[in-house]
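Q: Give me a protein?
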Amino acid sequence: MKKIKAVIEDACIHKISDLFRRKPRGLQFNDTDAVVVTAKTEDGRTVRETFYFCLKPDGTFNVETISRDRSRARRQRLAAFLRYYKIAESAKGYNIKEGIEGWKGKNVEVEEVDSIYIP
């Protein structure tokens, strides 16, 4: 699949309850927050990617969950995003609340299907 270069224009943290009136199917009780990343490609398209997780009071998140379900996979995907684009060396202990402002201006790769590439 062909990858296009893009730059993160905006990244912000939202409560799930602020984004949706009712929690969408598939999200578990421990998926309480979302990071919405907006990137603009070289050809002018805007791509949004949403990562669901549970934000702890200190600004970090647990990559591992008690259950081994899709919730764990979503958190692993966020951790892979942070590592692949060198936003953080490790997701463990990374403070998303403080570090999210530094995401703006970072280069990312976008797939043809309008999603940010995450290995």
The beta strands are 3-15, 33-41, 46-53, 107-111. The chain has one domain: 3-111. DSSP finds three helices and four strands in the chain. The radius of gyration is 14 Å.
